[in-house]
């Protein structure tokens, strides 16, 4: 079971004056969240811990929340967002991008669309102050100009301020989960981008479907859909024993001699806390198949099994995944989860994206730890929790 030891905080915001450019303050009430650190900025500030009186709002914030649920999924498609919902002088900031007009904001969207082919997913939107709406999202992008087309993943929050005089959005501040310094211009943010451009080679084959809920500096939290595997007994997480048996099943060694398309990755899994016993080797069956329609294995030690998926934390790495490397990565992952108040199940799963006997430096591997459904609340609802008083500002 996942555990969360921190309190939950949600901001209550009060705007001083009707001009969106003036000072705005918030106090935080009990949601878990890591620190956000920045410098003092003069235009917009959200300060934690101050008691302030609530100001009456004439803006229909519920309607604007509903609008964002409908509009933001079109951020990168041909329809695009509705620019009439934004002030002409809207301020947009993320750790490496800065625009002060709606035209600049739209230019940035078009640039990302043409260079990165991004996929945007809105997890939720909610009112977090009289003139403030916060959203949580995931954006996955492929950098097309590079031959290996690396995948960049960003998750985080957008804090959107509403101008009470125009009923339009007048500022948009993005906070990334993967960095601590979310100020513009953040060198940490730039490094985070370049780190994701490194060379990883993965076969162009079907993989289990999952949704990335959160990407931190050290791991990703994913929600896997159910999938079917063919499995047998292995000797160790980094070993190749048993691979030929499960590979034989999809190559036609089954009751109907059916050849089943190859997928990726190859999983080795254990529920042993020492990662040294109870190891299974698994190959994923393509989606669209079900247990009742699949042929039976010819070998007694080979079985078909449906995995229910669920929440998992994953860490990526390259190079040969020896037993020592896998154990070190599993320890690092558990340590990072523990620091964030999360606890995974016993054991782990190694995902290898090529033949286990032919791993080389640029092939990606992953170590995964699964947990219970209670992770969802601690991952997605920790949007505005702070371990101590901090401020972040837009200028």
UniProtKB/TrEMBL annotation:
Q: Which organism is it from?
A: Arabidopsis thaliana (Mouse-ear cress)
**UniProt record, GO biological process:** response to oxidative stress
Q: Which residues form a coiled coil?
A: none
Question: What Gene3D superfamilies is this protein classified in?
Answer: Regulatory factor, effector binding domain
Q: What broad taxonomic lineage does this protein's source fall under?
A: Eukaryota, Viridiplantae, Streptophyta, Embryophyta, Tracheophyta
Matches recorded under InterPro entries: DUF2358, Reg_factor_effector_dom_sf, SOUL_heme-bd
- From the UniProt record, which GO molecular function terms apply? heme binding
Record's GO cellular component terms: chloroplast; chloroplast envelope; chloroplast thylakoid; chloroplast thylakoid membrane; plastid
Q: Name one Pfam family in it.
A: SOUL
What domain of life does the native source organism fall in? Eukaryota
Q: What is this protein called?
A: SOUL heme-binding family protein
The record's comment on protein family reads: Belongs to the HEBP family.
């Amino acid at each position: 079971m996942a555990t969360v030891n921190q309190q939950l905080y949600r901001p209550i915001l009060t705007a001083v004056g009707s001009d969106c450019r003036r000072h705005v303050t918030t106090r935080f009430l009990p949601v878990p969240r890591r620190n956000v650190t920045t410098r003092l900025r003069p235009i917009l500030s959200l300060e934690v811990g101050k008691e302030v009186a609530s100001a009456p709002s004439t803006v229909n914030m519920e309607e604007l929340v509903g609008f964002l649920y409908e509009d933001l999924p079109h951020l990168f498609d041909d329809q695009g967002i509705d620019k009439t919902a934004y002030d002409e002088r809207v301020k947009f900031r993320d750790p490496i991008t800065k625009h002060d007009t709606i035209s600049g904001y739209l230019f940035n969207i078009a640039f990302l669309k043409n260079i990165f082919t991004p996929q945007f997913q809105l997890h939720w939107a909610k009112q977090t102050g009289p003139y403030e709406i916060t959203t949580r999202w995931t954006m996955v992008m492929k950098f097309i100009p590079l031959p290996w087309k690396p995948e960049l993943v960003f998750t985080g929050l957008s804090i959107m301020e509403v101008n009470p005089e125009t009923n339009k959005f007048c500022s948009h501040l993005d906070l990334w989960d993967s960095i601590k310094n979310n100020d513009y211009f953040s060198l940490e943010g730039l490094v985070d981008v370049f780190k994701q451009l490194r060379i990883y080679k993965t076969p162009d084959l079907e993989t289990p479907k999952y949704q990335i809920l959160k990407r931190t500096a050290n791991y990703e939290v994913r929600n896997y859909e159910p999938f079917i595997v063919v499995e047998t007994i292995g000797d160790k997480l980094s070993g190749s024993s048993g691979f030929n048996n499960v590979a034989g099943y999809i190559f036609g060694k089954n009751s109907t001699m059916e050849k089943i398309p190859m997928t990726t990755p190859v999983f080795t899994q254990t529920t042993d806390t020492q990662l040294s016993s109870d190891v299974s080797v698994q190959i994923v069956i393509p989606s669209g198949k079900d247990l009742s329609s699949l042929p039976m294995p010819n070998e007694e030690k080979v079985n078909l099994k449906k995995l229910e998926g669920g929440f998992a934390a994953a860490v990526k790495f390259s190079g040969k995944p020896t037993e020592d490397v896998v154990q070190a990565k599993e320890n690092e992952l558990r340590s990072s989860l523990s620091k964030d108040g999360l606890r995974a199940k016993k054991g782990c799963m190694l995902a290898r994206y090529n033949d286990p006997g032919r791993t080389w430096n640029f092939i990606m591997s992953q170590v995964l730890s699964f947990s219970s459904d209670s992770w969802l609340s601690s991952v997605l609802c920790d949007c505005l929790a702070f371990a101590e008083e901090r401020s972040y500002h837009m200028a």
